[in-house]
Amino acid sequence: MQQERYFRRGFKMRGQVQHLLDRDYRSEIVDEIRRRNNVLEAGDLTLRLADEFGFCYGVDRAVDYAFQTREKFPDRRIFLTGDMIHNASMNARLREMGIEFLSQGFDGRPDERFEDLDEEDVVILPAFGAPVEWVGKLRERGCIIVDTTCGSVLSVWKRVARYAQKGFTSIIHGKYYHEETRATASQTRREGGNGKYLIVRDLKETGYLTDFIRGRTSAGELKERLGHGMSPGFDPERDLVRVGVANQTTMLMTETMKVGEEIRKAMEERYGRENLAEHFELFDTICSATQDRQDALMRLLEHPLDVVVIVGGYNSSNTNNLAIIAAGRVPRSYHIANGECIRGASIRHKPPGTPLDPREEVEEEGWLPEGPVRVGLTAGASTPNSQIGLAVRRILEARGIRVEEALAAT
């Protein structure tokens, strides 16, 4: 009987790896603060956690499957097409387990290494998913494939594939260099799709698109401004007559909705309200976990806060968006990669921006004000509780408070 070569539901081995997951990613500190309704008071410091933070279901599932894969195939070569998630400590742990990375970062080209793989090798597809061409090449090589693609991402893919099959161009609100967005764009080429897409980063780029739709700019001008996000052979005059909107799941959700609305208004102005359905489609492809964490941060910011700390990878899109939200509302907001970035009166953090922003991590002294202080804390969907717990410990230590003493107090 031929061995199964493609797995999307793990290996039913969670029990065998649970102790490893708990050891590496659980935090008793976080567990205790949750039991206290997400508030910890110690001395003149009040620390408040967001209601939703850290690992989402999709990330937890992907990490679980990676650990199960190592347990299932202890003697096989195991590869990841790229970063499992945008968390440096997580990816480092997988390397310690002997899992090799075929590429790293946004500029990775793992398909260049596929020729070295064969049917004895196991390849894990990350939570972001992988382009259809990569999966096809892995199947050709006969590799065992473990697919950890997040269910929310798969929902977007189904919508984009449907647009393409109907002859619509997919307008994707996302970052053209991001692994998830590249994988989503590739879905336009599935099962007879037209292969047409245009990626817009933000409302500014959306404005270039709507100006063209309204006839205010030429096709050449649009290609000059947005050519980096266009599918091969893209012809604005031909390919923007019928469009459907989707998004990278980790984008700022309020912006995604505004992008869709701006395109809808432009298409209605161009073709008339009575003809809009023939030229424009928009369905809700917002990831609930991303939305939950952004909503929870907004609720956290309703409390009086002096400082907000956001924990998560600097190349994590959803974490960057949390940092942007906080920076607009609290003067002292700090996006840190992990708990080790806090060392007493000093903090290493990245100013709000983007993963490709030229701004880099900076070090700041005196980040925690003297006297009574209220600190809010949240974390991106790819941040394990162990790193959040370490951040709590370091915040307390910055005020000369031992975490054990703080948790012992009732």
UniProtKB/TrEMBL annotation:
GO molecular function terms listed in the Swiss-Prot or TrEMBL record: 4 iron, 4 sulfur cluster binding; 4-hydroxy-3-methylbut-2-enyl diphosphate reductase activity; metal ion binding
Keywords: 4Fe-4S, Iron, Iron-sulfur, Metal-binding, Oxidoreductase
Top EC class of this enzyme: oxidoreductase
UniProt entry tagged with the keyword Iron-sulfur: yes
EC number(s) on file: 1.17.1.2
GO BP term, example: isopentenyl diphosphate biosynthetic process, methylerythritol 4-phosphate pathway
The name this protein goes by in its record: Hydroxymethylbutenyl pyrophosphate reductase
Gene3D superfamilies: 3.40.50.11270, 4-hydroxy-3-methylbut-2-enyl diphosphate reductase, catalytic domain (3.40.1010.20)
Cofactors named for this entry: [4Fe-4S] cluster
Pfam families reported in the protein's UniProt record: LYTB
Species this chain originates from: Rubrobacter xylanophilus (strain DSM 9941 / JCM 11954 / NBRC 16129 / PRD-1)
CDD domains: lytB_ispH (cd13944)
Pathway assigned to this chain's UniProt record: Isoprenoid biosynthesis; isopentenyl diphosphate biosynthesis via DXP pathway; isopentenyl diphosphate from 1-deoxy-D-xylulose 5-phosphate: step 6/6; Isoprenoid biosynthesis; dimethylallyl diphosphate biosynthesis; dimethylallyl diphosphate from (2E)-4-hydroxy-3-methylbutenyl diphosphate: step 1/1
